[in-house]
Write a structure and sequence with these properties.
The chain has about 70 residues and is α+β, with helices and mostly antiparallel strands. Helix content is about 35%, strand content about 25%.
Length: about 70
């Protein structure tokens, strides 16, 4: 079984699902988990795909470059 590692922390379920959809679009399997009811939601991916997942999240969440006047 592949070891799953944390790639992101989500503020709520909607944010967790958004991160998960970004990863799915990049072809990376992921899960949204919480250790306990009061614990933060974490998004986990297979350890071997951690760097690719970080790159995908960064690439798809960067704000657009400012437009020069």
């Amino acid at each position: 079984m592949t070891r799953m590692v944390q790639v992101a922390v989500a503020g709520d379920v909607a944010e967790g699902e958004e991160i998960q959809s970004i990863l799915t679009a990049a072809g990376i399997e992921s899960e949204v988990t919480a250790a306990g009811e009061d614990d933060p939601l974490t998004v986990v991916v297979p350890e071997s795909l951690l760097e690719a997942a970080q790159d995908a999240i960064e690439a798809l969440t960067e704000p657009d470059a400012p437009i020069a006047d």
